[in-house]
Amino acid sequence: MSTAHDVEAVRLLIEARGHHILPAGAELLDWLGAWIEPARIEQLVHALGTLPCQFCDKGLNRCEACDPSAASETCVQCLGFGRSRCDFCSGTGLAAYDFLPMELWTGVIGRRTKLAASLAGTLLRQPMPCLDDPHAQKHLHDRLVNANKLLSVFENAVSAADALATQNAEAASRLRGTRDECFRIAGGLETRARDCLRVLAMLSRDQASPEASDSPPRHRSEFLESLADSPGFEKTMLAHPCLFDQAT
Fold first, then answer.
1. What is the pTM of this model?
2. Cys-Cys with 86: which of 56, 125, 165, 225 at CB 3.0–4.6 Å?
3. pLDDT tens digit string along 60-70?
4. Is the distance from CB of 55 to CB of 89 less than 8 angstroms?
5. Gap between the Cα atoms of 23 and 125, Å rounded
6. Angle, to 10 degrees, between the axis of helix 169-207 and the axis of helix 105-125?
């Protein structure tokens, strides 16, 4: 199985599993172990972990909640960006766990969280852009979107680990550390998201005319400032209840 054919190999595996051509449960792992080298199984798990969602553009779709007639209002769902999280993958940009064989979830959860943790570390080490940077707004938007995508990956991993734990005590034990790591990193990403919202609010306030008390930039500034202090970013695409509301 070469890298160029990873996605096709994964799709064939999923299709064969769905048509009951391959065994289920622990027998699937035994079958893979008998027919595929360990290194190739690792490659397969990596391909499953990075398999893209077929229904969105890297976790985002056009926001259906935006109201073009409300020009002075900021869309609560997408924060005025015009794109919101995909309903199928919850904004990860990756194939939903329900689409993958449950027998391989443990490896996929580990693979996805490891990759997301590395990306989160890079994002959190980046300094906040200066307010006088002409591209500051774009940089902040990109970081907020990326932080939200990573939060989606961690939230999906926690949900999948919890679902797996109800059927497999051994998997629950193996994933406990990974699950704790998801909550730990999510805390840093949440803080960074709030920082981005506050600076975006400042930039919008600077764009508002002093004479216009109800201009779109002023309204947007007030909305973002309020959102930055809101518990759990409720009712917006930044909400991740499994991470922000659930005790570890």
1. 0.86
2. 56
3. 999 988 875 55
4. yes
5. 45
6. 30
